[in-house]
Amino acid sequence: MILAIVIPYYKIVFFEETLQSLARQTDKRFKVYIGNDASPENPEELLSKYKDQFEFDYIRFENNLGRISLTQQWNRCIELTNNEKWLMILGDDDALGKNVVEDFYKNLNEIENESITVVRFSTVKMDKTGKNISYAYEHPKIEKSVDLLFRKTRSSLSEYVFLKSKVMVIGFKDFPLAWFSDILAVLEFSDFKRIFTINTAVIKIRISDVSISGKQDNLEKKAKATFEYNHYLITKKSHYFTDKQREVLLHNLSKCYINDKKNIIHFLQISKIYVMKFLIKSYFKFLQSIFYNYFKKK
């Protein structure tokens, strides 16, 4: 088996649709690994309905690690896998189009011949009822991973397949709520090079009030993660970007502080970047924007 599909499980509300989408795959050359994050909602009875429809391993962990770190929960679920070469991390509320696995194998020779280590599928957003609420997001067949950051699109962990060796060596960066941990993984697992998109198969991404992306009670953690993500790219990975792209990243970082001016540590971190990079003129503009927004709110 070449492809492992890893499901970090916690919520049962949409889980059957995820399982149904796996059972409907036109190509069954995959194995599923389900890691239960000490959920109060036991999925074992539901799983028993699918035991003969696709191959899977299931384990319940005794501690709720996702409450502390979602990326650590992802990692321990990945450790359940065997000798598969490629892996997908599928949300327990997302669903695969029926030809996702089939089209992955159809393109695999080209993917490997191009030495590509990150594969992406087309996606569509769906609501809590399973109804599509967006057009299909398609992408260039082959593009530089950094380029996807600077064009208007969307991204989520479920739509990617990663070369497992890259995941094991590099790992996921642990941001709050794993917000931006997925997109950083795309950059790092691709070595900031190219990714391959399969637009002929679609993955449905759930947007609901029980998903991290749909919730509104976690905005403070999302803001913290947004700052840490942009700060990491500017301070650790800046050489992968053009001057114009670095300007955008720094602008995004500055906006994080302007939206939360109580965080003096963030202000000092941003100031250090401006000064060390000798961006004095830009730094004064940053300070002006702070004062402007302060008096505007007054």
Would you mind describing this structure in some detail?
The chain is α/β, with parallel strands linked by helices and 298 residues long. 40% of the residues lie in helices and 19% in strands. The chain has two domains: 3-206, Alpha-Beta Complex (Spore Coat Polysaccharide Biosynthesis Protein SpsA, Chain A), CATH 3.90.550.10; 219-297, no CATH class. The protein has helices at residues 15-23, 44-48, 70-78, 100-113, 164-170, 181-189, 219-236, 243-258, 264-276, 280-297, and strands at residues 3-9, 30-37, 56-61, 86-89, 95-96, 118-126, 142-144, 160-163, 194-206. Helix 2 (44-48) links the parallel strand 2 (30-37) and strand 3. Helix 7 runs antiparallel to helix 8 (243-258) and helix 7 packs parallel to helix 9 (264-276). The N and C termini lie far apart (62 Å).
Quick structural gist:
Helix 1 links the parallel strand 1 (3-9) and strand 2. The protein has helices at residues 15-23, 44-48, 70-78, 100-113, 164-170, 181-189, 219-236, 243-258, 264-276, 280-297; strands at residues 3-9, 30-37, 56-61, 86-89, 95-96, 118-126, 142-144, 160-163, 194-206.
Distance between the termini: 62 Å
Counted by DSSP, the helix tally is 10
Helix content: 25-40%
What about the largest sheet?
Answer: 9 strands, mixed
Offer a few descriptive terms.
single chain, 298 residues, alpha/beta
Protein topology:
Layout: E1 3-9, H1 15-23, E2 30-37, H2 44-48, E3 56-61, H3 70-78, E4 86-89, E5 95-96, H4 100-113, E6 118-126, E7 142-144, E8 160-163, H5 164-170, H6 181-189, E9 194-206, H7 219-236, H8 243-258, H9 264-276, H10 280-297
Parallel strand pairs: 1-2, 1-4, 2-3, 6-9
Antiparallel strand pairs: 4-8, 5-9, 6-8, 7-9
Helix pairs in contact: 7-8, 7-9
